[in-house]
Design a protein that fits this description.
This protein has one domain: Alpha-Beta Barrel (TIM Barrel), CATH 3.20.20.60. It is built from 11 helices and 10 strands. The strands form 2 sheets. An 8-stranded parallel sheet has the order 1-10-9-8-7-4-3-2. Strands 5-6 form a two-stranded antiparallel sheet. Helix 6 packs parallel to helix 7 and helix 8 runs parallel beside helix 9. The longest helix is centred in the C-terminal third of the chain and has 19 residues.
């Protein structure tokens, strides 16, 4: 594995264009990142929700920037694959704040970021296109200043937030995607979408790698590859499953006094070994 920051960044870009779907099981701490690498992922992506929960904060711009960046630095130091960080809306209200976040994330060693356009106001659940493009432009400029080809995965929540009717939503997604690419984004991330026909149409209309979140109701990776998707990610689903197991195991322990919930796990030795023990 290459070790220089520029080489890792270049590799991460290539992983979106090599004809294979970049499949990411999002991590929320060092251990989950190491487990995913041992299982074979080609890159590590953090989940902002999982990171926030693991650090005792709610998701949705509630986590302090410094704590999020510290987690990214710890993950980068622990794995030998490219790391991309979910930075929510950018940890700040202004484009300058976003630029500061980008500089911090790059100092931590990450080679990619997700930046979302969710921002609840009286006018709707998303930032305006002009507001979001200003933030993306600031992010790109900050990366260019330090000479790292940062992969900016511009997330639009048109589907996740059910913005408009079906026709309006598709049109808005495409328009936002083009604007975000013109502002310096490397790829487009559309969570909350599982309909294969719509995904195929978006992949046709967006001239950049398309990232989709996946889960039990989603098309298979093979189907998404055929549809033109470049990247799929599980988002907070693995963290949610882990916390779901904690709830099931606790209830079983307290209610029936049994322990079947935890019979199919990684061993102490496996986990300890991944972390240098």
């Amino acid at each position: 594995m290459t070790t220089s920051h520029q080489e890792r960044a270049a590799l991460f870009h290539t992983l979106h264009t090599d004809g294979e779907v970049l499949a990411l099981a999002n991590a929320w701490d060092v251990a989950s990142a190491c487990v995913s690498v041992a299982a074979g992922v080609r890159a590590v992506a953090t989940t902002s929700a999982g990171v926030a929960w693991s650090l005792g904060a709610a998701d949705g711009d509630r986590l302090d920037r410094s704590r999020a960046v510290d987690l990214v630095a710890r993950v980068v130091a622990a794995v030998d694959v490219p790391v991309t960080a979910d930075i929510e809306t950018g940890f700040g209200t202004t484009p300058d704040d976003v630029a500061e976040t980008i500089r911090a994330v790059l100092t931590a060693g990450a080679v990619g970021v997700n930046i979302e356009d969710s921002f609840a106001t009286d006018d709707g659940p998303l930032r305006t296109v002009d507001e979001q493009t200003a933030r993306l432009t600031a992010a790109r400029s900050a990366a260019d200043e330090v000479g790292i080809p940062l992969y900016i995965n511009a997330r639009t929540d048109t589907y996740l937030r059910s913005v408009g009717d079906t026709e309006t939503r598709f049109k808005s997604t495409v328009e936002r995607a083009h604007a975000y690419l013109n502002a310096g984004a490397s790829g487009i991330f559309v969570p909350g979408l599982a309909d294969l026909d719509t995904i195929t149409a978006l992949a046709r209309e967006i001239p950049a790698p398309l990232n989709i979140t996946v889960g039990p109701r989603s098309p298979s990776v093979g189907e998404l590859r055929a549809a033109g998707v470049a990247r799929v990610s599980l988002g907070p689903a693995v963290a949610e499953a882990a916390y779901g197991l904690m709830r099931r195991a606790t209830r079983e322990l307290l209610e029936s006094g049994t322990y079947k919930s935890v019979q199919d796990t990684m061993t102490w030795g496996e986990l300890n070994g991944l972390l240098g023990g």
